[in-house]
Amino acid sequence: MLLHRTSKFRLLTAVATGFHGPIRLGNVRKFAAQLPARLVIPEEEIEESFLKGSGPGGQKINKTSSAVQLKHLPTGMVVKSQATRSRSQNRSVARRLLADKLEDVEKGAESRTALKTEIKRKKKASKMKKARRKHRSSAEDRDLETAASEQTTRDSKDEASSGYGNAER
């Protein structure tokens, strides 16, 4: 049996119930359902070529034609991928990059990457706000401690100078 539980970390947690109780399967991001589907590009609109790689990775990268270059024929947009040593993985990465670029051009602020960027920006802002709040409260605590210690030292000085312990009174 498969359950979905919401945790305090705003994630859906997939849980399977086993013989000895619940078994945690992993987290499913909540915002993944909010993102639009990735743009599908017809094969006729893509010109694909394989290039020899360059840069770090050793001799194997430089000898084999594992880098993939895709050109979108209607727009003339070109994408090159050399993320891995595998040609098939580079093909899928390049197609994803090309789809994201085309979607950015077509949809602008409503594109998948723009929405992801906005989600990251909001998370970072929330994190910064929490850090400021935490820092502010610790600074206020230090200020209160400092004020309290100054008050006690002033009180002790006042008692010593007022002469309560003198015999002349």
Helix and strand arrangement:
Elements lengths: L1 E5 L4 E8 L2 E9 L16 E6 L7 H5 L3 E6 L4 E5 L5 H21 L4 H51 L7
Antiparallel strand pairs: 1-2, 2-3, 4-5, 5-6
Task: Summarize this entry quickly.
Helix content is 46%, strand content 23%. With 169 residues, the protein is α+β, with helices and mostly antiparallel strands.
Describe the model.
The chain has 169 residues and is α+β, with helices and mostly antiparallel strands. It is built from three helices and six strands. Strands 1-2-3 form a three-stranded antiparallel beta sheet, with no helix packed on it. The protein has a three-stranded antiparallel beta sheet with strand order 4-5-6, with helices on one face. The N and C termini lie far apart (87 Å).
Helix share of residues? 40-55%
User: What string gives the helices and strands in order?
Assistant: EEEEHEEHH
The helix tally amounts to 3
Q: What is the makeup of the main sheet?
A: 3 strands, antiparallel
Strand numbers in spatial order across the main sheet? 1-2-3
Question: Using DSSP, what is the number of strands?
Answer: 6
Overall pLDDT level: 77
Structural class: alpha+beta
Cα radius of gyration in angstroms: 31 Å
Beta-strand content estimate: 15-25%
Which regions have little confidence, pLDDT < 50, spanning 5+ residues?
1-5
What attributes does this structure have?
alpha+beta; 3-stranded antiparallel sheet; 169 residues; 46% helix; 3 helices
